[in-house]
Amino acid sequence: MRRNAAWPNFDVEKVEAVVLEVAAELHPEILTGDQLAKKIASDPRDSRELDTATQAIHNLRELGLFTERDDELVEPTPAALRAVALLLG
Questions:
Q1: What is the CA radius of gyration of the chain?
Q2: What backbone torsions phi and psi does residue 31 show, to the nearest 5 degrees?
Q3: pLDDT averaged over the chain?
Q4: In this predicted structure, what is the pLDDT of residue 3?
Q5: For residue 2, is it within any domain?
């Protein structure tokens, strides 16, 4: 089956939700952006899927849902952790 732009793995907003949920579930374990992208990808060898995950991580950083860090680690903020807990409760 050929994937297209509508495929959920390439929909940045849907991938943002998965990235945030997985990062919150893993907490207090903290991964790098690359590790997290590979963890959520259905095919970690698919560069387009990894690029979408990387963009999702970038967007969530800009929105303040991941802690600002000087390294490559992706750590959800306390507010993000609480929001995920409330939504998935």
A1: 13
A2: -105, 165
A3: 90
A4: 40
A5: no
